[in-house]
Amino acid sequence: MATVVETDVLIVGSGPAGASAALALSTYGVPNIVVTRHASLADTPRAHITNQRTMEVLRDLGVEQEVVAQATPQHLMGNTTFCTSLAGEELGRVRSWGNDPLIQAEHELASPTRMCDMPQHLMEPVLVNAAVARGTRLRFETEYLSHTQDPDGVTATVRDRLRGDTYEIRAKYLIGADGGRSKVAADAGLPMGGQMGVAGSINIVFEADLSEYTAHRPSILYWVLAPGATVGGIGAGLVRCVRPWNEWLIVWGYDVNAGAPDLTTEYAEAIVRKLVGDDDIPVTVTSSSAWTVNEMYAETYANGRVFCAGDAVHRHPPSNGLGSNTSVQDAYNLAWKLKLVLDGTAHPRLLDSYTTERAPIGRQIVTRANRSIRETAPVFEALDGLSPQTPEQLWSNIAARKDATAAAEKQRAKLREAIAFKVYEFNAHGVDLNQRYSAQNSAAIVPDGTPDPGFTRDPELHHQPSTRPGARLPHAWITRGTRTLSTLDTVGRGRFTLLTGIGGEDWVRAASAQDIGIATVVIGPGQEYEDPYGDWARLRETSDAGALLVRPDGFVAFRHATAAPDAGELLANALLQILGHGERAIMEEADVDDEEPG
After folding, report:
1. How far apart are CA 204 and CA 250, in angstroms?
2. How far apart are CA 230 and CA 372, in angstroms?
3. Helix 323-342 to helix 352-374 angle, to the nearest 10 degrees?
4. Burial class of 380 by CB neighbour count within 10 A (0 to 12, 13 to 18, 19+)
5. Which helix (H) or strand (E) holds 20?
6. DSSP at 530
């Protein structure tokens, strides 16, 4: 066996989770190696919706503009259309992905970023190229085989698929980002809930100029209600725009119990023709593949020095566009914690907060994505399209909605309501941005004694900003000299940040006295940062002299509403808890030890 290769962090997988972990770690100066069994990065579009929270992560990691330059912009994403085929009858539309005027305002108020559509085969090179440029060592054609752990690290055995030999990589920590059939997660024995293979789907990637049917109603998703569309899959036939308006991906279901069909070019072209509805437009099928709809989530994301992220721990259909977004955010949550543990700033027990913070999010998005599939059924129900019938009967039902009868009027109303309800899939702004980490579960969040105010509106549909510990720092436009920037631009970059205002001098001194390099941001008239619109004053939920301590991932870790003569002690104790050195963390560890037999 060859000489053992050494690194701080070994990452298995170069998809959104693995590439983001590599990028964040290299940005923070942590040596890492990425191995992937594949010969290249993703060669098909796969994941694509990129929400505001992910764009905030990419903004902090310095690649936001590269993504914006290649992505389909938000204004071309949002006329989600329900039809009998692209060339056929239109049944209705939903203004999606923040393109409803009222929801668009909520998007603009919530973040300095805009969501976009960035297919995975374009996203991965942006992430990986930046990671490699900053120090990541990338090894293609390198297959993870197994790993063993000891108190000081992880030894992984990998196989070079070109040479055929095996060798070992020795790391202090291992990240399994190897997808929905994760061998790392299986080897680590991570307990899973839910089930795999609940339905079957086919992806067909093709090229065709469909601008005649799409440019006047620009969207990335066109849902087709055709005979057979309710079999397996994601609830209906789907024509997805990869690049406007000549690169496309179709999703079509199959009976998972009968097995995937033979994916010949002829079969794929027949499905394309069925959903496009035009037999004369030139079509070139470039690839086709079968996959299964899953409803599975890990109950814990780690075992010792092995951590898993992305599809390895949450496996679900593409509904709501949550998969790659949650994967990127998993990696972002984990990377700063690994960095602080590896450089000795934090105790390894800080890493326990990765599972306690991210596992509930993973379970939520698995549940939401699968629920969105089931919420497509009422669209068919409005047309009596779920009961067994001939295609002619379905077309007759669709035509009947145009009649001047009481029954047809009732059908039209039912169809409008069913389509409008899909807002829970296509405009779930709260699912994207309302993530809250609980101080009861995570020692990396310091409670401030305030009661949880809950949400005043539907938390899946509407974002509600908060500075309560465990919430993402709210966005507000502030100024620094002649520059306008977001409050989110003042935090991140791998370090903690303390935000205060006029009268918060004690907090500034307390932050400067810490030896972990806390950045300080003072906002107010005549200060380095000013709040000309008064937006920050309305959002901060503290007095001018209060303080917020924000973690490297942009989440509020500690809040004090007012000035405090003992600011130094309060901040020092908060940091001891967050970094795993405090009394709470030690007591929790002792409680776990007490529960062990023997």
Report:
1. 5
2. 14
3. 180
4. buried
5. helix 16-27
6. B
Q: What is the 3-state secondary structure (H, E, C) of 375-433?
A: CCHHHHHCCCCCCCCCHHHHHHHHHHCCCCCHHHHHHHHHHHHHHHCCHHHHCCHHHHH
Which residues partner with 314 through β-bridges?
A: 297
Instruction: Kindly report the backbone phi and psi dihedral angles of residue 59, in degrees, each rounded to the nearest multiple of 5, phi listed first.
Output: -65, -45
3-state secondary structure of 460: coil
Q: So what's the pLDDT on residue 232?
A: 85
Residues whose CB is less than 8 angstroms from the CB of residue 482 and which lie 6 or more positions away in sequence, other chains included: none
Contacts of 63 (CB under 8 A, 6+ apart): 23, 126, 127, 130
- The closest of 95, 89, 41 to 218, measured between CA atoms, is 95
- 198-238 pLDDT tens trace: 899 999 999 999 999 999 999 999 999 988 888 888 889 99
CB 552 within 8 A of CB 498: no
Distance CA 472, CA 488 (A): 9
Task: Determine phi and psi for 590, rounding to 5 degrees.
Answer: -65, -40
> What is the rounded distance in angstroms from the CA atom of residue 283 to the CA atom of residue 280?
9
254: nearest Cα among 224, 232, 287, 280 = 232
Phi, psi of 497, rounded to the nearest 5 degrees: -135, 135
* Helix, strand, or coil (residue 124): helix
Q: Are strands 5-12 and 32-35 parallel, antiparallel or unpaired?
A: parallel
Q: What is the pTM of this model?
A: 0.95
The per-residue pLDDT for 24 is 98
Q: Which residue has the tokens 């949450």?
A: 314
CA angle, 371 then 203 then 194, to 5°:
35
The alpha-carbon radius of gyration of the chain (Å, integer) is: 25
Contacts of 78 (CB under 8 A, 6+ apart): 95, 96, 97, 98, 99, 100, 218, 219, 426
Residue 207's SS3 state is strand
Q: Mention every residue, 6+ apart, whose C-beta is less than 8 A from residue 471.
A: 436, 437, 465, 555, 556
- Phi (first) and psi of residue 185, to 5 degrees: -65, -40
pLDDT tens digits, residue range 368-409? 999 999 999 999 999 887 776 678 888 898 999 999 999 999
Q: Is-contact 310 20, C-beta < 8 A?
A: no
Is the previous residue joined to 97 through a cis bond, with omega within 30 degrees of 0?
A: no
CB atoms within 10 A of CB 98: 25
- In the predicted model, residues of the chain with pLDDT beneath 50 are 585-587, 592-593, 595-598
- Scanning the structure block, which residue is given the tokens 């070109």? 162
- Alpha helices (H) in 219-291, listed in sequence order: 265-276
- Strand intervals (E) in 79-236: 79-83, 90-95, 116-117, 137-139, 142-150, 153-160, 166-176, 192-207, 221-224
pLDDT of the residue at 2? 62
